[in-house]
Amino acid sequence: MCEAMPYQDASRPIAERIDDLMSRMTLEEKIGQMTQIPGNREDADAWAAKGIVGSFLHIMGQTTQDIQTIARDRSRLGIPVIFGIDAIHGHAFWSGAVVFPTQLAMACSWNDELIEEAARITAKDVRATGVHWTFSPVCGIARDLRWGRVNETFGEDPHVAGRLAAAMVRGYQGERIGDPERILACAKHFAGYSETQGGRDSSEAEHSPRKLMTYFLPSFKQAADAGCATFMTAYQAIDGVPCTANRKLLTDLLKNDWNLDGFIVTDWNNVGLLHHFQKVCPTMKDAVRVAVEAGNDMIMTTPEFPELAREAVTEGILDEDLIDDACRRILGMKFRLGLFDEHRMTDLAQIPRTVGLPADRQHALECARQSIVLLKNSTLLPLSETVGTIAVIGPNAHDVTAQLGDWSFGSGQAGFQTDEHARDDIVTVLDGLRRLAGPNRNVLYARGCDAVETATDDIPAAVDVARKADVAIVVVGDTLDYVGEGCDRADLKLSGAQQQLLEAVHATGTPLVVVLINSKPLTVNWLAENAGAVLEAFNPGMCGGEAIAEILYGMCNPSGKLTVSIPRHVGQQPMTYQQIPGWHGPGKYVDLAKGPLFPFGFGLSYTTFGYSNLRLGCTSIPADGGPLAVRVDVTNTGDREGVEIVQLYVNDIYSSVTTPVKELKEYRRVPLRSKETRTVSFELWPEQLSLVNAALERVVEPGEFDLFVGASSAEEDLLKTCFEVTEPAARG
Ligand code: BGC
Q1: Pairing relation of β-strands 82-85 and 512-517?
Q2: What separation in Å is there between the alpha carbon of 544 and the centre of ligand 1?
Q3: Would you give the end-to-end CA distance of the chain in angstroms?
Q4: In angstroms, rounded to a whole number, what is the distance separating the alpha carbons of residues 185 and 179?
Q5: Is 675 left (phi over 0), alpha (psi -120 to 50) or beta?
Q6: 47-87: per-residue pLDDT in tens?
Q7: Higher per-residue pLDDT: 4 or 352
Q8: Of 127, 164, 264, 364, which one has the greatest count of Cβ atoms within 10 A?
Q9: Using one digit for the tens of pLDDT, what is the confidence trace for 209-260?
């Protein structure tokens, strides 16, 4: 038997093992580590056997083990392959794994621990199926809602996005990289991608450096601080420079200033885009050079990359040190994951004992419960026991793919998979209402119309059903045709014949409850006005129908709050609660009522909450001191227990640059029994009050601040006080 080489010796330090391995690698093999290709290519085995590929994406299960075996037994150095997948709200392309609500939906829980646990379950499932890395979380913030990928974000607020992204990173990666039940996270899309012009995906994003630093980078920084191992570059350009070519962003900021010790992966063929679409590189070879020089380590699905990179190095136009650095970073992660040693292979026989466990399902149900936002309620909800006949109507009442949302079976991105989730694993709203109806309720159903087609032929049948019922629950929203890459919208109205359906059902006089299953906010003004109650569920995942039924029947008290404003009109886009003061006139368009239809932070409960006694530990803190203690009493003034999401905002009244009228700085979920009062405490540190000034420095400027605490970002929901930040004590 031949003696193990030093890099194969698990007892040696990783740095030493990498040095030894790299000293044995050819240029082609090092460039191979930087190469990522789809695992379902016919020639995938050949790439693995030659040892000229570092990673495959979009494969799972037995195929991963077959390829890993080939890489081990047939390639010259036996370097393991790392497999990546988009498991962004559960391991949603694996039949049998749980599908959680989308990021946008789960964000409405404002529950960091809940989301961390969802990520842990996802990691466990992904790892059990032979995959080591997920392209998640999305750290971008939602801006123009016409964009097709709003559902992938945590909403519009940098603070929420940063906290929840960090929670997801912790959930995926665990305490340390190398835990055999965890995976690598990937914060994407770096950076500023979600600031689409006109909602047009991947179009140039308009960012001043200040805007990028103020709103778009902080959530990525929090992911980095949480130890996120990898980052994915964004498709779009900023001020003419594609992110893939942006050395300042990738190398200077992410690798040097933020100390990324993992690696950067491009998005899908970003290198090709530099040449073919963005046309900043006259040849593909130039695109390869530019991308590597900018700091990209792994190149996703640019088939020409390995050959052109080798030529560029050989011709002396690309520095081999850059290849070495990228290779070293990738190998480092493989060593840390244990892929060279005990965690190289996965025991797929364990899948039935690991994936889709009852406890995972329970967690997906809990996520859905906490994600749902009650937008309006007269006295209709919860449905009383006397409501005997329920008409369930609408295209999304019994639509599995609309409910699961993007990045699951049924979505365009699942092209590489032909499987699907067992229908029994998914509870639609109709299923849920039927299952939980109890002996005294009768549930009728008529689909009524399509969410895409405009035909109205089926509406009369739905009207008939509504006439026979004590209440009509109409489930509308959008479908996968309106979600994802390549699916930006010009309008945010209900599509197909859904509006006609709603009006026809309403005209019957049967009390109307509307449930929204949609990828993002729609302009549902008519509903807000005419329905007796409205629930926003976004894409609530596999157990969504059960959670919705529990809420409708009153078995669960809704607690979700919006992390994205619901506009009145598409013409308000982009619109977030973080408005900059100075808009001439009454702060509204002349032809539209003021503000959003439902504000950021808003959500009702079956109980009511009161806020009182907002007080501060002191009225001023030095810019280098703190923290400022903030306390408020929150009372459950209703007669059932509930959870209130308490929000703290500040406004820097006078600052050297314009700042938003309000910025969220803290939040807390507070469970309260009926009539219970709790004092909720926050600590506010001066850094949380910092801004990016005109010189692009992050500073805390002395001066007065308004501080608001309450139930939403709306003025009328907030108590207000003020405090002062004084000159740094060190200077005084
Ligand atoms: C998306 C990424 C995704 C990648 C791999 C790209 O088109 O923008 O978010 O991770 O494909 O599926």
Answers
A1: unpaired
A2: 25
A3: 73
A4: 13
A5: left
A6: 999 999 999 999 999 999 999 999 999 999 999 999 999 99
A7: 352
A8: 164
A9: 999 999 999 999 999 999 999 999 999 999 999 999 999 999 999 999 999 9
b/e map 86-105, b = 16+ CB within 10 Å = bbbbbbbbbbebbbbbbbbb
The two three-digit tokens of residue 217, written as one number: 């980078």
**Mean pLDDT, residues 300-314:** 97
267 Cβ closer than 6 Å to some ligand 1 atom: yes
Please report the DSSP string for 632-682 in residue order.
EEEEE-SSS-EEEEEEEEEEESS-SS---S-EEEEEEEEEE-TT-EEEEEE
Average pLDDT value for residue range 285-294: 98
Residue 641 has φ and ψ, to the nearest 5°, of -75, 155
Rounded Cα distance, 544 and 525, in Å: 24
Name, in order, each residue with C-beta under 8 angstroms of 100's C-beta and a sequence gap of 6 or more.
89, 90, 106, 118, 121, 122, 363, 364, 367, 368, 541, 542
Atom number in ligand 1 closest to CA 152: 9
Atom 10 (ligand 1) nearest CA: 135
Q: Quick check: 631 and 615 in contact, CB under 8 A?
A: yes
Q: Residue 588: what residue type?
A: K
CA distances from 406 to 152, 234, 551, 709 (A): 8, 19, 24, 35
Pocket test for ligand 1, best of 243, 413, 483 (most atoms within 8 A of CB): 413
Q: How far is the CA of 365 from the centre of ligand 1 (A)?
A: 27
The burial class, CB within 10 Å (0-12 / 13-18 / 19+), for 36 is buried
CA 626 to mean position of chain CA atoms? 32
Q: What is the pTM for the complete model shown? A: 0.97
Whole-number pLDDT of residue 2:
61
Give the CA dihedral 83, 85, 89, 95, nearest 10 degrees.
Answer: -90
482 within ligand 1 shell (Cβ under 6 A) = no
> How many contiguous H segments (helices) and E segments (strands) does the chain have?
22, 26
- Listed in sequence order, the residues at least 6 apart from 306 whose beta carbon sits closer than 8 Å to its beta carbon are 28, 31, 32, 34, 35, 52
Helices (H), 451-516: 459-468, 498-507
Q: Tell me, what's the pLDDT at 119?
A: 98
Q: Is the pLDDT of residue 503 over 80?
A: yes
Average pLDDT over residues 701-711: 98
414, pLDDT greater than 80:
no
**In sequence order, which ranges of 111-157 are alpha helices (DSSP H)?**
112-128
Confidence of residue 409 (pLDDT cuts 50, 70, 90): confident
The rounded distance, in Å, linking the Cα atoms of 589 and 696 is: 32
Closest among 452, 478, 475, 477 to 462, alpha carbons compared:
475
DSSP annotation of 619 reads S
* Ligand 1 atom with least separation from CA of 135: 10
Give residue 1's pLDDT: 45
The CA distance from 268 to 132, in Å, is 18
Q: Where does residue 352 rank: exposed (0-12), middle (13-18), buried (19+ CB within 10 A)? A: exposed
Mean pLDDT computed over 390-395:
98
C-alpha to C-alpha distances, 700 to 624, 656, 691, 725, nearest whole angstrom:
8, 11, 6, 8
The pair of three-digit structure tokens given for residue 528, joined into one six-digit string: 């807000």
Q: Is the pLDDT reported for residue 417 higher than 80?
A: no
Which candidate, 193, 248, 518, 192, places its Cα nearest to that of 375? 518
Cα 24 to Cα 29, 236, 281: the distances in Å are 9, 38, 33
What average pLDDT does range 259-269 have in this prediction? 98
